[in-house]
Amino acid sequence: MMNNKMFILGIASAVFLASCNPKEKTTETTDTTTDSAAVATTPSDSITKATPTAAGDTSENALDWPGTYEAVVPCADCPGIKTSLTLNNDKTFSITEEYIERNSKNQDKGTFEWDASGSSITLKGKTASYKYKVGENILIQLDMDGQEITGPNKDLYVFKKK
């Protein structure tokens, strides 16, 4: 009889604990999930916001990019295009393109935008819509898809800071 009572008490305790645990676990799981989501979201947002302003992480915030850059880029029907591009701190630019051995000169002004990674810019002018990768005292002209130009003349698309 004593074993019977112990057995019934053990079963009742197990049922009682089993009925309490799922509610507590559900609450804990929900709270933990909510807390984890909140914790995970907050650092992620903080990191995302901090990254663009963290020193050394991007060309935009780590390099001394404002200034004038020059190169003679290839031309299909002339010896080259002497190009001078000035980037200003306020995200404006001016560009002069002079066709060598031709009496032709283009000038444009406008703004430029940094890409999401902070490493490349796109000019937004009346006619100029070039893309450049920004490096230490250099700009590398990119194709319209944002890729570096390849081939034997690729070095001619590297602009050097004056």
Keywords:
162 residues; alpha+beta
Order of helices and strands: HHEEEEEEEE
Question: Low-confidence stretches at least 5 residues in length (pLDDT < 50)?
Answer: 21-55
Rg from alpha-carbon coordinates:
32 Å
Going by helix content, strand content and strand pairing, the class is alpha+beta
Quantity of strands, as a count: 8
Pfam families: NlpE
Organism: Chryseobacterium pyrolae
Protein name: Copper resistance protein NlpE
InterPro entries: Cu-R_lipoprotein_NlpE
Give an overview in words.
- By secondary structure, this protein is α+β, with helices and mostly antiparallel strands.
- 33% of the residues lie in helices and 33% in strands.
- It is built from two helices and eight strands, in the order ααββββββββ.
- The chain has helices at residues 2-50, 59-62, and strands at residues 67-73, 81-87, 92-99, 104-114, 120-125, 131-135, 138-142, 158-161.
- An eight-stranded antiparallel beta barrel has the order 1-2-3-4-5-6-7-8.
- The protein is globular and about 105 Å long.
- The model is unreliable at 21-55 (pLDDT under 50).
SSE topology sketch:
Elements: H1 2-50, H2 59-62, E1 67-73, E2 81-87, E3 92-99, E4 104-114, E5 120-125, E6 131-135, E7 138-142, E8 158-161
